[in-house]
Amino acid sequence: MTELKTDTITVNMGPQHPSTHGVFRLILTLDGETVIDVEPVVGYLHRNHEKIGELNNWIQNTPFTDRLDYISPMSNEFAYVLAVEKLAEIEPPERARYIRIIMVELNRIVNHMIVVGFLLNELGCFFTPMFYCIRWRELVMDLYEMTAGSRMMPNYFWIGGVAADLPPRFLPECKELVAALPGFIDELERLITDSEIVQMRCKNVGVLPPDVAVAYGCTGPLLRASGVPYDIRRAEPYSIYDRFDFDVVVGTVGDVYDRYLVRIEEMRQSVRIVEQALRDLPEGETATPKKRKFMPPEGDVYHRIEAPKGELGFYLVSDGSEQPYRYKIRAPSFVNLQALPYMCKGYKIADVVVNIGSIDITMGEVDR
Amino acid sequence: MIGLGILKGMSVTLRRFVDTYWGDLRQFPRRHAPGGVYERMGITERGAFTIQYPEERVPMFPRYRGPIMMLTDPEKDLTKCIACGLCERTCPTESIKVTRAPEKIKEQNVPESYEYDMNTCMFCGFCVQICPTGALGHSPILETGAYSKGDALILNLEQLLEMGHKYAPEGVWPVEEKEAVAS
Amino acid sequence: MELVQRLLEFVDQIFVNLSFWASTQLANFLPEWAVTFLMMFATVLVLVFFGLGSIIWINVFERKVIGRFQDRYGPNRFGPFGLLQCVADMIKLLTKEDITPTKADRLIYNLAAVVPIIPTFLILAVIPFGRGMVAADLNVGFLYIVAVGSLGTIGIFMASWGSRNKYALISGLRTVAQMISYEIPMVLSVVGVLLLVGSLSMVSIVDAQAQWRLPFVVLQPLAFVIYFTAAVAEVNRAPFDLPEGESEIVAGYHIEYSGIKFAMFLLAEYINAFSVCAIAATIFLGGWQGPILPSWAWFFLKTYFLYVVLIWLRGTLPRVRIDQLLEFAWKTLVPLALANLMITALVAKLVPHNSLVGAVAFLAMNVVVIVGIAVVKYPRWRKERRQVVLVPRSASSEASGP
């Protein structure tokens, strides 16, 4: 019997779409409901970040790094500040290091909550888990505002410490929050994990085998869900991560459900780290004295951290002057996004959206 | 299995639903009194999380980074700014323009004109951090809407000094220990 | 005591007495056929106004209730407690520009705005709103509902085809498949109830529940669950709202409509949901029966309770994918409904009707079926549970990674 000669249609999930996490365009080639090809088009949020970085001072660059991944701004600042400190060989004081770890791990919790909330929004759950996650995020934003002055673009880390000491209100509230967070994470899990519809939609969807993940250069929860136990905090400990006791969460199959489970468990591990940091917080000063002109020695450095989305790296080249000569960012979302066509081929349209939600992209980072 | 997971999820939402009504009942007179200043809900409290904006305002934290204001020294009754130009040089978006007056007043350099452009300011706080005399502070102004871009949002020296008198009468920023300054 | 009872009965029959009084007044100066015609016309007008009038606040009701599920208040600015919000919405929709895409098929595009709303009003004609308050007591009531309710499908398909838009077309194809698949379990689950009643008329279904002294949800819980699930899929509400799958194909079949035509689709969806809840309340929950309060108050209470359950489902559950949806309908619901039907027929033959023994027998049968299914599915579910692996940080790092 001769086969039916069917035609493929090309659909454009344009830059303006409720579920593409910002301005992100996808050109889908469909045969009925099955996806044959996916072509992502990025660049709608390009803001010339790297060129602007070359025109600013070393010190003036920190507010701009906040705007890269705007959901977890403290991590971006952390990576930049650590890279410059490595270049100029400055050691921040101990109290500043502990404060930085507290802020960065709280940031990781916030980021994972937002990702899980938005993943469920794309699955169709009309904003309900998202509102719960945003409510808990507000509590952490209050802590940021109390300390740094601003909720979303804190501009808190200096080269050589942090900008200001913690206000007296911070510690009791942070301890109360850390005691309440496991309850929140449990409630989120009760809402989602055992639900049959979530399992039907997420299991065996978007499977990424570990060798393919490593070949694409994916990092972060995407890689760990595929079964590769690679975490930069464990492989090359930076800052004071070697003093804390936490586990690296690894998945088994590598589908969307595993990525979700990995993120939930990572939140719990971050709560552990924050508890230990709050317990061991030493007294002392919070910044080395700031110089007016900051001119690091010549040379180049590449420093990477485990941002909530993956490996965030800064490659800085200095020629001894006040401004960087080259300022390059290795954005985790941009590299992870390359695995999207592999994950989507052969699945249905509804799965494309779920896959994007599970890779966890922020267009500020992808386009810089 | 056969829908039990769905029922478990539904019980979570049901609990939140009932909690909003229960929370409303508990806070009844305080919540609906007109013009009440409302504290942000505590961490472990349950109930509706909304703050009804124009009627209930949450006081800003002391370190909140709003638009810039200029502080005056209360004893000398003169602005603390010595027109050194460091804020102009350190601003990443070039939003500040200072010129120095030719004569000194009370043996202190004073600025002749100070233009602060709220259109391009990104509220990073570098100017406040780098000022050697502590003449700049952040006002807790939240509602910066104007009817037109451009001139309405470029503030000059008198406006900045007026904001400084209103929000930091002692001449020091941040106004810590007093816990909150309502905008 | 006597006075209270007379008062309650007066309030209960207030609408019936009103229409009776009106017809006697008209009979004074009009011939017989004119009176009948005018009374029928008035009934139709009352139904239509009831439908349109309930839209005024059913939309706000839904938004406020779903806001409460999400830890926030719904709209509360416009009118006391936000009740006039729908007026604001309607004003906004009426004053929007009516854009027609240039390549759209005009006739079908414009007609499709009106077609989905017609069956929803037709369904309201056979539902008993209270004791003696039914617009048309057809003796094929339920068959009429099924037949007319399936006309809504063609309206949606006309909308998606006439828009000449790929998103709308995808959504239209999904809708047709979904709606025709879910009619079968919906009908089959109610046939079990009809076996117990012996007639298709809605009024006699309510009367049969009076004779059993128990609502049919106690006698046929499995049928209730199947009917409710299939009805949620029929009216395109979450978790089965693929036709307007908001996050993938941005508003689906009504993507090209704006202004009053979009308002028509919205109206059709809400009144459809209301009708389906009303039918479920009539067939399974006992209709308008209940103590003290007037009968129409009980009817509305039960319907709105089921509507709150619909909103609860919408707020909690994510959407199901199309192939999983069809698989669920054909491989799970239809066999369950058929099994329910066969066993109901068997048990109905063996036990006496209208007795407590029969009720207990039916309940026991349903419980046995559900427990049997659970026992059969348990081992496989146990095997498929997923956990993550925790590798402690201080373990030796043998995986060097990329």
Structural overview:
The complex is a heterotrimer of chains A (368), B (183) and C (402). Chain A has helices at 49-55, 62-66, 73-88, 94-123, 128-148, 170-192, 196-202, 210-216, 221-225, 232-235, 256-279, 332-336, 340-344, 349-359, 363-367; strands at 9-13, 25-31, 34-41, 157-158, 161-162, 247-250, 299-307, 310-318, 326-330. By secondary structure, chain A is α+β, with helices and mostly antiparallel strands. In chain A, the strands form three sheets. In chain A, strands 1-2-3 form a three-stranded antiparallel beta sheet. A three-stranded antiparallel beta sheet of chain A has the order 7-8-9. Chain A starts with 8 loop residues before the first strand and ends with a helix. The termini of chain B are far apart. Chain B has five helices and seven strands; from the N terminus they run ααβββαββαββα. Chain B has helices at residues 4-26, 28-32, 86-90, 126-130, 157-167, and strands at 68-70, 72-73, 78-79, 96-100, 111-117, 136-138, 154-155. By secondary structure, chain B is of the alpha+beta class. Chain C is mainly α. Chain C has one domain. Chains A and C meet through helix 4, helix 5, helix 7, helix 10 and strand 6 of A and helix 9, helix 14, helix 15 and strand 1 of C.
